[in-house]
Amino acid sequence: MDVRAKKSLGQHFLRDLEAAKKIADLMSGHGGYTQVLEIGPGMGVLTQFLLQHKEYQTDVVELDRESVDYLNVHYPELKDRVHSADFLHLNLATFFKGEKFGIVGNFPYNISSQILFKVLDYKDLVPEVAGMFQKEVAVRIASKPGNKDYGILSVLLQAFYDIEYCFSLGPEVFSPPPKVNSGVIRLKRNQVTDLGVSESLFKSVVKMGFNQRRKTLRNALKALQLPDNEYMNKRAEQLGVEDFLALTRMAAGDESRVAKTT
Length: 262
Fold this sequence. Notes:
Oligomer: single chain
Radius of gyration: 20 Å
Helix content: 25-40%
Strand order of the largest sheet: 4-3-2-5-6-9-7
């Protein structure tokens, strides 16, 4: 018996087996992880292909009790690795005992941004992420400076991850079909271990810049009382990660370390 998709959980079950296999195959082991966590497996369309990869062990976390019961019946090889829990409330360091792990999934679109902010919290344990998002979100995350889709998550994630937009899917490959198109992206942890500035201040500067994205940074960052500089007449979407790091150093009062970014 199939699981009934629940609107309250943002469930849209992927039916395209080829797409599911392509997502599973994106998990390359980058960064040396041997454990993978799938978020929101539903009826296991993606799970079945993850289990074919013997180079890593797959665990799944699912909030829907009906899906948990279905997975336990249909995927006995997942014995003790189907976790009935809310991913957003998991302590991932404890969950994987401090070991690195990859994250994958056809993510519920209503919490996809929250999932990525949690990935940032555990960036030193998560070398790779691959998954399905609402296309608009996927494009935004992968966008480069100067693009209207470029935003807060773009900057914060690109500070620590190399991001690749992989492919798109229409609503017809899901049950029930969502009202939006979907996009698959992959994030690979880069070599940055220390931004050289306070991460919380960096996040604040980025968020302030984009919260009034139509304004120049002179106005958007007015509360920081920054000295006049080359960025003030630009808008947030025109600045890359290094530019925001330069602004963060200014905000921290260490202008001597600011080098002109071209």
